[in-house]
């Protein structure tokens, strides 16, 4: 097969492997010993740390692959690794098992600065405030008989020359399987496979892309649903399935230490963040449900809702047509809509919006504290990220460098202006797509149903379908742009793609919500002089109660539909792929299949790791925070989704995918500043929703300006007349732009009403804004400014008084540093003292000899 890398020059790279005293050790191809759960070579002694799979080709066109594979394996052995090959059960593949001897492990543990225990933690832990309820809370934690709590140690970076200072009780278990796999992958990523003079081609990634190897992965320790009978098997995968991934354990806390121990810190920190986010959502969901219940039980008692439904008030108010082909309608036809609007548009919503602004600050600050605890417990406090090797695509394509004449640095050029242009273009397209969808669908339907909610559900469903279709397109565009930028390392690639994908998804999911909240119904003119878009489409108008109920409908459909679709997709697709592979490969259960081949039949881990899981949750976080003032049930829906999401991700990871290569991670990476940006924007959007989308500010202005003094302090009486005051009068004789063939004005109808604050016909300033309009605008702007300043000030105070690192963790870090200095560096002092004494003794002997 043609290899795209064969025709491209590669930059010169000096590779210096670690020198090891071990001799190359390669076992010839051996027969499988019929132990399906074995984690060792056929000798039962050497542990399998990694597995490579390839097809044994004999054709001439595969000769280059064969040569590269032989060179690669020779270099692996020169670097101290031991190999053993075994034919697959179906005799199509060869599995190359990799083992790392003790000396190699010690060498690369020092290279990777892996922290290992030096002494038991002797600092007394603070008692938990929940210890008095342990008889109840223990049922919400994994079974301690199955998953015991890990012992706490002070740790230090491993040093090969000081092994006696570390707590090494058993060399076979001193390095955990995840550590061994991480070190094995580090070597595989740096072993050369082709040498031409000083230029070396290296790395398992390029060999996988070129088809030299079909797969490379660490193996699971057992089947997920059957406990292994091998005495050396820890059965951690089985325990994770039973106590974490199984649906019956949905109510239990996650065994984070075991997740980290089995999959590595990067996957562990994701599930820790997801679990913490879900727990914090509990408080927001309780308050949001309380706000919803309050609105539901007060909807029938609100004065404005009663006036709309009253046949003597709302039944006698004739409203102007809201489109060029619409007819007149009475206000009481929107009685149910008005009642439903009161559920979400009430004073409890304002309280909930302020609460969520404080909640999101507490979420981020408490997460920083929890993250600091995990950093200490998981030994990533001073995690030294190793210099990553260049990506194969970077090495293959980046063949020319131009040195900066001033700084002397070889720059990396990024295609940075196109993402911005595409982002802006995407926003414009989304805006007009939402507008066009509403207008083209709304116009014909409004003739047959009520004009207020005629197309809310239909447009929301169409918008959701369009969003899911465009997601695929924008994902490809983001990947194409990132590939064009040619980031040097995997981390650079992920960070660049993260920003682009989030911007595209942000616009894709939220553009329709922003349109309804801040554009729809804001520039419609008045019945005699409506505003047209592109000279053809008349801008949409909102319900007399505002667009808030439509925004709520949009949020509920998009948020709920996205959650359902994603969970179905995450469960069905990997399961179907595995099922199809087994059928196509004619895998039978009659033959005994070894552990490494069982894992080969699973789905490979994604090259982007947990990128899509993070993206899904961050988009949900935006729904929960950006528009929560219009939909207080959003946290409750997110909570329900996340409870399912944790188990779905755990089930998928444990049962349907190969074991991922363990990776170190100190935090959630580029997603943290994105979350911080969303929280800052959320304060503005919620304040603007309350000010411009809901009807709360006009009600308050009416309450204080017109009703308090005439009616006293009785709220039931003070809001009387509000509906009449919020509707302006229009003379039917002033219709000039409407064809009488479409709108039939009853002979006895001289005026109609519309939602606005304008002078009536006959006034010297007829149809111009009246003074009440400017009072409302001033009140809205004042509300936004005051609320933003109060909330931002509260956020600043909370962020200041809540330390990012708990005091107890700081003390433990200091204690650990002290012990490291005493235990490890004290050895140097002893060596110096011995040398000084030896020198003094030698000097004294020389002096004595000279005197004699």
TrEMBL record:
Domain Anoctamin transmembrane as annotated: residue spans: 259-816
Localization of this protein: Cell membrane; Membrane
GO cellular component annotations of the record: plasma membrane
Alphabetical list of InterPro entries matching this protein: Anoct_dimer, Anoctamin, Anoctamin_TM
Anoctamin dimerisation domain boundaries: 40-256
A molecular function (GO) term: protein dimerization activity
Transmembrane segments: 270-297, 347-367, 453-474, 497-518, 617-640, 674-694, 772-793
Any one GO biological process: calcium activated phosphatidylserine scrambling
Alphabetized UniProt keyword annotations: Cell membrane, Glycoprotein, Membrane, Transmembrane, Transmembrane helix
Topology in the lipid bilayer: Multi-pass membrane protein
Protein family per UniProt: Belongs to the anoctamin family.
Protein name as it appears in the record: Anoctamin
Native species: Oreochromis niloticus (Nile tilapia)
Taxonomic classification: Eukaryota, Metazoa, Chordata, Craniata, Vertebrata
């Amino acid at each position: 097969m043609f290899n795209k890398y064969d025709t491209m020059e590669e930059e010169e790279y000096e590779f210096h492997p670690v020198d090891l005293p071990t001799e190359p050790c390669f076992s010839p191809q051996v027969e499988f010993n019929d132990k399906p759960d074995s984690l060792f070579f056929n000798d039962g002694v050497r542990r399998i740390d990694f597995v490579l799979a390839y097809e044994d080709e004999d054709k001439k066109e595969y000769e280059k692959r064969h040569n590269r594979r032989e060179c690669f394996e020779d270099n692996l052995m020169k670097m101290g690794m031991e190999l053993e090959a075994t034919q697959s059960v179906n005799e199509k593949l060869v599995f190359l098992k990799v083992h790392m001897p003790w000396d190699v492990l010690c060498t690369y543990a020092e290279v990777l600065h892996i922290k290992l225990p030096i002494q038991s933690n002797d600092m007394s832990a603070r008692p938990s405030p929940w210890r008095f309820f342990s008889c109840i809370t223990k049922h919400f934690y994994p079974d301690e008989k199955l998953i015991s709590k890990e012992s706490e140690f002070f740790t230090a970076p491993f040093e090969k020359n000081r092994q006696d200072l570390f707590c090494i009780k058993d060399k076979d278990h001193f390095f955990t399987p995840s550590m061994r796999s991480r070190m094995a992958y580090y070597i595989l990523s740096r072993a050369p496979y082709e040498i031409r003079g000083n230029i070396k081609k290296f790395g398992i990634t390029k060999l996988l892309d070129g088809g030299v190897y079909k797969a490379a992965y660490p193996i699971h320790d057992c089947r997920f649903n059957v406990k292994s009978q091998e005495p050396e098997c820890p059965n951690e995968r089985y325990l994770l399935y039973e106590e974490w991934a199984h649906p019956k354990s949905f109510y239990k806390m996650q065994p984070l230490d075991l997740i980290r121990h089995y999959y590595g810190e990067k996957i562990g920190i994701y599930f820790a963040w997801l679990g913490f986010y879900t727990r914090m959502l509990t408080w927001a969901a309780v308050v949001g449900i309380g706000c919803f219940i309050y609105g539901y039980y007060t909807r029938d008692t609100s004065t404005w809702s009663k006036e709309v439904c009253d046949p003597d008030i709302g039944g006698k108010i004739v409203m102007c047509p809201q489109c060029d082909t619409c007819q007149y309608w009475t206000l009481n036809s929107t009685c149910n809509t008005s009642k439903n609007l009161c559920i979400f548009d009430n004073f409890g919503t304002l309280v909930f919006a302020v609460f969520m602004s404080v909640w999101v600050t507490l979420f981020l600050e408490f997460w920083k504290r929890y993250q600091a605890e995990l950093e200490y417990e998981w030994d990533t406090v001073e995690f030294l990220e190793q210099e990553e090797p260049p990506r194969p695509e970077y090495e293959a394509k980046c063949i020319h460098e131009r040195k900066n004449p001033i700084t002397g640095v070889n720059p990396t050029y990024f295609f940075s202006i196109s993402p911005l242009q595409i982002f802006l273009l995407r926003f414009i397209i989304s805006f007009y797509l939402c507008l066009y969808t509403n207008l083209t669908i709304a116009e014909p339907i409004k003739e047959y149903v009520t004009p207020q909610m005629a197309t809310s559900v239909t447009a929301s469903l169409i918008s959701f379908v369009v969003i899911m279709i465009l997601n695929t397109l924008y994902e490809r565009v983001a990947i194409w742009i990132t590939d064009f930028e040619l980031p040097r390392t995997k981390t650079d690639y992920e960070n660049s793609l993260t920003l682009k994908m989030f911007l595209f998804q942000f616009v894709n999911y939220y553009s329709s919500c922003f349109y309804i909240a801040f554009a729809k119904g804001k520039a419609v003119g008045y019945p005699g002089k409506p505003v047209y878009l592109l000279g053809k489409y008349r801008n949409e108008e909102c319900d007399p109660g505002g667009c808030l109920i439509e925004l709520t409908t949009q949020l509920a459909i998009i948020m709920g539909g996205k959650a359902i679709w994603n969970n179905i997709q995450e469960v069905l697709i990997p399961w179907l792929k595995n099922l199809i592979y087994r059928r196509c490969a004619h895998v039978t259960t009659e033959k005994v299949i070894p552990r490494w081949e069982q894992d080969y039949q699973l789905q490979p881990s994604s090259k982007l790791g947990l990128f899509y899981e993070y993206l899904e949750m961050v988009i949900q976080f935006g729904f929960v925070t950006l528009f929560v003032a219009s939909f207080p049930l959003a946290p409750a829906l997110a909570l329900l989704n996340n409870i399912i999401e944790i188990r779905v991700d755990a089930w998928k990871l444990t049962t349907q995918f190969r074991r991922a290569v363990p990776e170190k991670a100190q935090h959630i990476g580029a997603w943290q500043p994105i979350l911080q940006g969303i929280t800052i924007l959320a304060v503005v959007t919620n304040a603007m929703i309350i000010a411009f989308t809901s009807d709360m500010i006009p009600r308050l202005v009416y309450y204080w300006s017109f009703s308090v003094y005439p009616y006293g302090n009785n709220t039931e009486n003070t809001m009387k007349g509000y509906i009449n005051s919020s509707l302006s009068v229009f003379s039917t004789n002033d219709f000039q732009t409407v064809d009488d063939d479409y709108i039939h004005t009853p002979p006895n109808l001289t005026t109609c009403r519309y939602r606005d604050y304008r002078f009536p016909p006959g006034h010297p300033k007829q149809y111009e804004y009246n003074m009440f309009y400017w009072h409302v605008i001033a009140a809205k702007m004042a509300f936004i400014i005051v609320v933003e300043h109060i909330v931002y000030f509260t956020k600043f105070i909370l962020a200041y008084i809540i330390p990012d690192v708990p005091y107890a963790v700081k003390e433990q870090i200091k204690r650990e540093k002290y012990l490291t200095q005493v235990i490890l560096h004290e050895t140097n002092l002893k060596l110096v003292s011995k040398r000084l004494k030896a020198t003094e003794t030698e000097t004294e002997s020389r002096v004595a000899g000279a005197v004699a």
